[in-house]
Amino acid sequence: MSMSGSLAAGAAPGKVILFGEHSVVYGQPAIAAALGHGLGATVESCDDGPWLRIPRWGSEGLEVRPSVDGKGDAMCSAFALALRMTDLSLDAGVRVTVDGQLPLGVGLGSSAAFAVALLRGLADQQGQQLSHQRLSEGAEAIERIFHGNPSGLDHTVVITGQCLHFNRGETPRFREVQLGAELPIVIAWTPRAGTTREAVAQLKARRDQCPVEYDELFGAMGRLADAGAAALEAGDLQRIGTLFDLNHGYLNACGVSSPANEKMVHLARSAGALGAKLTGAGRGGASIALAPDDPNRVVEVLREAGFDALFTTVR
Ligand code: PMV
Hints:
315 residues, alpha+beta, Alpha-Beta Plaits, 7-stranded mixed β-sheet, 4-stranded antiparallel β-sheet, 9 helices, globular, binds (3R)-3-hydroxy-3-methyl-5-(phosphonooxy)pentanoic acid
């Protein structure tokens, strides 16, 4: 493909669920925050576009054209939708590359970050700035292509870059949680067994066998998320760490932890983290540890055990 200069760009952070995954599906509050790591989109003009390139997607990277007449896979449809949302035609002379340090597909909001970075990059190319409302509509539509029925939490956190207290319901409700102190977080991850949808369905089957017991557990997880919000506002790292540990215990009781998640949280705690939990749907995927003292040591111990790991901050 031939290329010719001119550069535009857009970026978006990943997200991390600090408290309340899974119980949020049962009407309880959850707390999620934007991560210090994310994805960026660079847009170049070229004379045989449009092209979308994602070098780290899949084992060999991905390069796609937008779908025309609904043909092509989810990524082609998402690209076509992003072009339309930014008033670009399906034969626009653009070549977009989306890349960054955010781990993909492990529950850290990579599809929402992808959608928002792509929309921002294309809008920049057009000399536009998308309103929150328009970005949110576009990101939600792209998330719907990938995930079916997104809760809205991921793209709202990714667009605002804030830490949010979230209640699902007919109309989702968001409240900003202003952090009293920045959070030094080590993230470790491993491939997931199955999708978020499967993890939610499996927990529903367990809950249907013991509804009273599980609803009590979900209620406790909701109270813990509210306590977590207060500790985040107070900047009380010791207490946040302890609440991470408690939340992880509840998630284990829900059956969504895996041997890899257990190993990651135990290694992080024994390397000095104040607390650790799985984050997101579980069954593998990512775990987070609050590590203010020697985060690099925690990263090292996790990597020595064969996990991918990085140090980031939530502010
Ligand atoms: O791992 P993620 O980012 O897909 O998060 C899933 C969070 C759940 O509470 C398990 C599901 C949901 O829709 O809220």
